[in-house]
Amino acid sequence: MKNAILASTSTLHGQQYLSYLLPEIAKLFKGCSEIIFIPFARPGGITHEEYTSLAKKALQSISINVKGLHEFEDKEQALKEAQGLFTGGGNTFLLVDKLHRNNLMMPLREQILKGTPYLGSSAGTNIGGLTMQTTNDMPIIYPPSFKTLGIVPFNINPHYLDPDLHSKHKGETRETRIKEFHTLNTQPVVGLREGSWLEIKDNDITLRGTLSARIFTVGKEPIELASNTKLTSII
Amino acid sequence: MKNAILASTSTLHGQQYLSYLLPEIAKLFKGCSEIIFIPFARPGGITHEEYTSLAKKALQSISINVKGLHEFEDKEQALKEAQGLFTGGGNTFLLVDKLHRNNLMMPLREQILKGTPYLGSSAGTNIGGLTMQTTNDMPIIYPPSFKTLGIVPFNINPHYLDPDLHSKHKGETRETRIKEFHTLNTQPVVGLREGSWLEIKDNDITLRGTLSARIFTVGKEPIELASNTKLTSII
């Protein structure tokens, strides 16, 4: 009963917030007059109110009202009653900390498994995986656990970035980091490039957008998965 | 009684491991015939043995023998008896996890405060700060705490990278990440560019290398600190 979009990024270069994804969002939230936005990742430290306004403005054009989860006294109940759910990007450590400390991770998971349409972007996509351990973010807060929603049976690396072959910088490439993850963890990792998203319908997971995704599996060479292909190889 | 070098990176583009820093390392470890290498950060998942061999080979040219901390049954005692200490780079989460789980973080700190010469590079430099929370690494393991050595009264961001003004990538810049850190944490952050290092002599901390460092302080615009300048403004 799952119905979700997990997008690598909310915004493409030179575009407005969510604009490239609006046709898909309209389909995902078809029939919803209002959805709940989870603003806890607070990019750049903006307030929950400011961040919710941004989402509200973006979804106005497809006639969907947005309320922030922070506005509700009983947040678990709010999740249960939501017509649709959207978790925005920002800092994944902060998002995961806030969800765990408010005991909202499992209730959120349950609603998604029951079929409430879910949209994630960036950090909101990262938490769709088994753990947040393939995030690119800085550990600005110490969360009670790195476990996340697990609505897909692998980990996700949003904003996946190919190595810059001309770079003289000695910091690790994204691929090196994911390989380090695989020295200690066994789940596959999907490197989602900006402009790509995973479309989840019940048990089908399909890569959408124009780009391929890079799939990392323990003990194997990474492979490129073409757009509009199901992720059957790793699920 | 502190005597330490905290280097942004072990290796510069096109050079051998540690080669740019060897003259400084020779001065730091003057009088030491053997030092202990802490290989726990295991870059790319290499073994403790492989990583220690790399350090051993690099320090051979300045006639210093290297033993890996993993070789010792009583690691705390080994730290106490060491003539010099060197923590290599790799994954900071892994390094911090291993140090805390083996109850070695505080003993290591004590030895450095007592004056045992200490060299850190990358992750080994990051742990010189108050917490590891300005690392660039992926959280591939969940450490018991983010607290680190605190031999300098601020946090360090190694491999500091200036924003690429031509990039179309929407992942956060390093500066944005550090500003997010400052929405929740108050300690200053020193962004150390590759090729820079902090020289610590007792209570003096001096920026060395050819580049400036970027200093982030809560509520202020970041400033550039020139090379060969003391970090008096933030300590």
UniProtKB/TrEMBL annotation, chains A, B:
Record keyword Protease present: yes
Alphabetized UniProt keyword annotations: Hydrolase, Protease, Serine protease
Top-level taxon in the UniProt lineage: Bacteria
CDD domains listed in its UniProt record: GAT1_Peptidase_E
Listed GO MF terms: serine-type peptidase activity
Example of a GO biological process term: proteolysis
Similarity remark: Belongs to the peptidase S51 family.
Protein name in UniProt: Dipeptidase E
